[in-house]
Amino acid sequence: MKRTLEPSPLVQSKWMVSVVLERKMPPSCQEKQIPPPCDGLGKTSFRRRAEQSGGICFWLQHLRGSKLLEVGTLVFLLSLFPVQARATVQAASLRESDQALADEGMSCLMNGEADAAISLFREISKQDPASPLGDLLQADATWWKIYYTTANLVDPDVFDVVYSDTTPYDSQFDSLIQTAISKAEARIAARQDVAENYLYDGMSYALKGRLDGLRARDLATARDGKKMRSLLLTALQLDPNLTDAYAGIGLYNYFVATLPTIVKMLRFLIGLPGGSRRLGLQQLTEAAERGNLVRAEAKFYLAKDYTRSNEMQFDKSLQLFDELQREYPHNPFWKLMVASVHMRLGHEKEGDALYRQVLAETAGRNTLVDESVHEQVAKALERLHPGESIH
């Protein structure tokens, strides 16, 4: 999603005039050979167009010294390039703004500040109301509010144990997801940013599956996952650089391969494609290391997978949760996860001390994540120390 800007229409027009009237080449083209064209001009999208059409440097090279160039040709070229560049510059500027807001919002979200993240994601929707991205990210932040409110936050290997089947955030989540899906499908139909919108469509179904999975709705989760898989594979086929897609595909491959009993039933009922445990872990690792929007969340799921009974790779899980704690120190949930993995490793002294740190640090705070973490870490300490007064 992140792009840099192409040369402005004014700059391109000046180059054209300098070639025709002054026989001068722009500095970035003077030392270039044809091919490769325009490497010095900077942008991926611009370089792709240059490679396809010969690029503006190609045209400038051939215009220079031409005695057959007529005024009509110059007028045509001066009108053509600025129009193309203007459209691309506007799109690139919006995308850069989206990326900055998305980055800041995801940092807030992973630091436990879901409402602040939602405010930033709404700005994306305001800047580009037709884009699904703002709605998708708002839904993601809403999912975390549901997770903090209802899920088992203490046990790192648990995915679908919840204390309530509904929350006040459910209707908001459903509305945002449906809006994101509708917008993504509309842009795909309009052939606008097709690969990215297949990604956003797939990520929307991934979020639906994450909520259904959290509440142990197996059939709904499987249907969401099947749809998500198809959309994300299409996105990767169109653009292999959309690394965020590997988070959803990796989760799909891993869980389909490691939940054999229910999967056998669902594969028969809905034609669910098979998965691969090893490939799923590899794909989650790819998203955790190189992802754009989902890097931290992929790391979260990868760390949880490593604690499951079929993995028991607690050292790897501890490393990943510790990285999240250091990167997002304002979210007590990450320290809670570090403490819980220490407990799984048999490091009871370290785990108990961290539990007590989390309890003290969240006491008296009224944010959603602080209150939820405080309540659950207090219960964990009460189980470890029956009869002790835990405050």
Would you write up a description of this structure?
The protein has 391 residues and is mainly alpha-helical. The protein contains 18 helices and no strands. The protein has helices at residues 9-22, 27-30, 44-53, 55-63, 71-110, 114-127, 133-150, 170-189, 194-214, 218-238, 245-258, 260-270, 277-290, 295-306, 314-327, 332-344, 348-362, 368-384.
Q: What's the short story on this structure?
A:
With 391 residues, the protein is mostly helical.
Structural class: mainly alpha
Strand content: under 5%
Question: What share of residues is helical?
Answer: over 70%
Integer average pLDDT: 81
**Low-pLDDT stretches:** 1-94
Query: How many β-strand runs?
Result: 0
Q: H/E order of the elements? A: HHHHHHHHHHHHHHHHHH
Q: What characteristic shape results from the CA principal axes? A: globular
Q: What gap, in angstroms, lies between the N and C termini?
A: 46 Å
Largest sheet: none
| Rg, Å, rounded | 26 Å
Tally the helices.
18
Task: Give the topology.
Elements (H helix, E strand, L loop, with lengths): L8 H14 L4 H4 L13 H10 L1 H9 L7 H40 L3 H14 L5 H18 L19 H20 L4 H21 L3 H21 L6 H14 L1 H11 L6 H14 L4 H12 L7 H14 L4 H13 L3 H15 L5 H17 L7
Any descriptors?
single chain, 391 residues, mainly alpha, 18 helices, 0% strand, disordered N terminus
